[in-house]
Design goal:
The protein has four helices and 13 strands. By secondary structure, the chain is an alpha+beta fold. It has one domain. The strands form two sheets. The chain has a five-stranded mixed barrel with strand order 7-8-9-12-13. It has a three-stranded mixed sheet with strand order 1-11-10, with no helix packed on it. The chain is globular.
Length: 224
C-alpha cells in the first residue's frame, strides 16, 4: 500500500471542542468497498472512506446512488475500500494498548493497515485519514493548535495469536524521548528478530527509521 504522510501545520485559533470537531469532520468520498461485521455478515457497496480511528458511525450505500446507511463502528470487524486507481486500503477494529509498557487495552480503534505478513500486522495512525482529490489516494493529516499540540504519527503492531494491538513507535519533529519509548516497546514486541532488536537497543536505529524497522521485521518473520 502506498501511503504518503503529510503533517499540515495549520495555526488554529479556536481550540477545545472546535479543534476536535475540525479534526474529525469526515469529508472523504465514497469508494467501492466492503464492511465486515462482527456477527459474520458483510455489507458490499460504496463506503465513505473512514477518516478517524474513533469515528462512531461509518456511512455506507448498497449502490452508488443507493440510500445512505450508517453502521456503528463498534459493530465492525474490518473494512476494505478501493480507490478509483485500484489501490486497496484495509481497516481493522482492534483493541489497542496505547502505553509503551502497557498490557491492557481500554478500548478499540479502527486502524488503517500499513503493512503485514502472515505473522504480524502493522497499523498507522495520525490525526485523520484523508483522500487527496487530485491523486485519489489516501494520506495522513494532522491539524493542531500551535503551542498546545504536536503533530505525531503512531505505528501499532499486532501479532498472530495475540488479543491486543500494541503501540510500537511514535514519530514527531522536535519531540524528545521517542527513541527510548521505541526501545521499550521493541524489547517486548520485536524479539523474533534479535539482530534488528539489537540495532534498536544499541541506538543504531531509531523512531525516524520506523519504516525500515517494519520492513526488516516483516522480511525476517515472513516464514513464521
Amino acid at each position: 500500500m502506498k501511503l504518503k504522510t503529510t503533517l499540515a501545520f495549520l495555526f488554529l485559533f479556536i481550540v477545545g471542542i472546535a479543534h476536535s470537531n475540525a479534526q474529525n469532520l469526515n469529508t472523504n468520498p465514497y469508494w467501492n468497498g466492503e464492511i465486515h461485521l462482527a456477527d459474520g455478515t458483510t455489507k458490499t457497496g460504496t463506503v465513505m472512506v473512514p477518516n478517524s480511528s474513533q469515528e462512531n458511525y461509518i456511512a455506507f450505500r448498497p449502490s452508488e446512488k443507493g440510500k445512505k446507511e450508517t453502521v456503528r463502528r463498534k459493530e465492525i470487524k474490518s473494512i476494505k475500500v478501493t480507490s478509483p486507481n485500484g489501490t486497496d486500503y484495509f481497516y481493522e477494529q482492534v483493541p489497542v494498548v496505547i502505553a509503551f509498557n502497557g498490557k491492557t487495552s481500554y478500548g478499540t480503534s479502527l486502524l488503517l493497515v500499513y503493512k503485514r505478513n502472515n505473522f504480524a500486522t502493522f497499523f498507522i495512525q495520525s490525526g485523520v485519514y484523508k483522500v487527496d482529490p487530485k491523486t485519489q489516494e489516501m494520506y495522513l493529516l494532522y491539524r493542531y493548535a500551535r503551542g498546545m499540540d504536536i503533530p505525531t504519527v503512531q505505528y501499532y503492531i499486532h501479532k498472530r495469536g495475540e488479543e491486543n494491538t500494541f503501540i510500537l513507535c511514535m514519530t514527531a519533529s522536535n519531540m524528545g524521548l521517542l527513541n527510548s519509548k521505541l526501545r521499550k516497546s521493541a524489547s517486548r514486541h520485536l524479539t523474533e528478530d534479535p539482530v534488528l532488536l539489537k540495532q534498536i537497543m544499541d541506538g543504531d536505529l531509531g523512531h525516524k527509521d520506523i519504516e525500515l524497522i517494519i520492513d526488516t521485521f516483516l522480511e525476517s518473520t515472513k516464514a513464521l
